[in-house]
Design a protein that fits this description.
alpha/beta, seven-stranded mixed β-sheet, single chain, binds pyridoxal-5'-phosphate
Length: 368
């Protein structure tokens, strides 16, 4: 029997300072309440195509790039890109100056993809050093994290893209925790593959990730195609030719993702970048005034995430601080840097300067 019924529910807002899934707007949350639909119907395929167009719009890659959308967290897109872009006999140089660079290395290890690593936790990836390393070996690809979410370092995307271009290697970029907030122009920057997910700077729900790839790479993606689920070519051509995703999508999460993309385009990436930087600045100044030091020097900071060093505060108990803040509706996040005691706060999400001032006030209360 057909019918309709009001569903209304009041949902409180929390301040998530973990680096995604972030605080979403109430409109993104509400977009998930939709009638039950079969994702094999054509209107759902149209929704997925609109998501793809929106993502290319965010990256300014409408005329240069294509997109493959996966039902997976961000690591799924990472795995899909590596296995789809690099064929047996080729070799990738991976910038491993944090946990996520190391994750790419572990995926290559699992698939038997030939790779070398360069740099260690927190080291700045000097483009000159990368160039020399590429010249010293038979590399076909360079893979890097744009924003290393484990340390808060913004790696030099534009410079490393110039290196990849002039050394004639393909560039693979993990822009998981920058895409949507940091202005990236795919039509101007030499980027062969870029991947990210629904739940970081685009401010949607978790569950989807995507790969933007240069149109000139289509032939090699087709020739390389060897994976079943995580195959960029098969996923791209599947949606194009059948109007459906190959495997069951999370219908409600897709609806929310389109709204989150529209909100990103509405705010503009430049506008979002200004908001994130202003929010980050308040946290930076606030924690500095409380006597904390930071893992990175200021000029290497992403302005998206702050890794706070605990050595400067020997009596500080992170667990207690976490629980106190959680009671105020604020979630702070532990660190992952080996042998260095840190915790992290990120500004990824639908947050504004009032939220940041509230965080600083509550932190002050904890210490008083
Ligand atoms: C979040 C993140 C990932 C992927 O993490 P998932 O938990 O799989 O979504 C990969 N790289 C970076 C840089 C990230 O910040």
């Amino acid at each position: 029997m057909k019918g309709s019924q009001e569903i209304s529910k009041s949902i409180s807002r929390t301040i998530l300072l973990n680096p995604g899934p972030g605080t979403t707007s109430q409109t993104v949350k509400a977009a998930m309440i939709v009638e039950d639909t079969c994702p094999r119907e054509s209107h759902f395929g149209d929704l997925m195509k609109d998501i793809g167009k929106g993502l290319l719009g965010i990256g300014k890659g409408t005329y240069t790039h294509e997109v493959a959308i996966f039902v997976a967290s961000g690591t799924g897109a990472m795995e899909a890109t590596l296995v789809s872009a690099i064929r047996p006999g080729q070799k990738v140089l991976i910038v491993t100056n944090g946990a996520y660079g190391l994750r790419m290395a572990s995926i290559c290890e699992a698939y038997g993809i030939d790779y070398s690593t360069i740099f260690t936790y927190g080291q700045y990836p000097d483009p000159k050093v990368v160039r020399e390393k590429i010249r010293s070996g038979s590399f076909t690809h360079l893979a890097m994290i744009h924003h290393e979410t484990s340390t808060g370092m913004m790696n030099p995307l534009e410079e490393l893209s110039d290196v990849a271009k002039s050394e004639n290697v393909r560039l693979i970029v993990d822009a998981m925790s920058s895409f949507g907030a940091y202005p990236i122009d795919l039509s101007e920057t030499h980027i062969d593959y870029l991947f990210s997910s629904s739940n970081k700077c685009i401010q949607g729900m978790a569950g989807l990730s995507f790969v933007l790839f240069h149109k000139d790479r289509l032939d090699e993606l087709k020739a390389n195609s060897r994976a079943t689920y995580f195959d960029v070519y098969k996923q791209w051509s599947g949606l194009l030719t059948t109007g459906q995703l190959r495997f069951t999508p999370p219908v409600q999460v897709c609806h929310a993702f389109l709204v989150a993309i529209q909100e990103t385009l509405g705010e503009t990436v430049e506008g979002r970048w200004a908001r994130y930087q202003a929010n980050w600045r308040i946290l930076y100044e606030g924690f500095k005034a409380l006597g904390f030091g930071f893992f990175l020097p200021e000029d290497q900071q992403s302005k998206i995430l702050l890794a706070i060093n605990l050595d400067s505060k020997p009596d500080f108990q992170f667990e207690q601080f976490h629980d106190y803040m959680h009671d105020q509706g604020i979630t702070v996040y532990p660190g992952v840097i080996p042998e260095i005691n840190t915790f992290r706060v990120a500004v990824i999400g639908d947050l504004d300067i009032n939220d940041m001032h509230f965080v600083v006030e509550q932190s002050q209360k904890f210490f008083n």
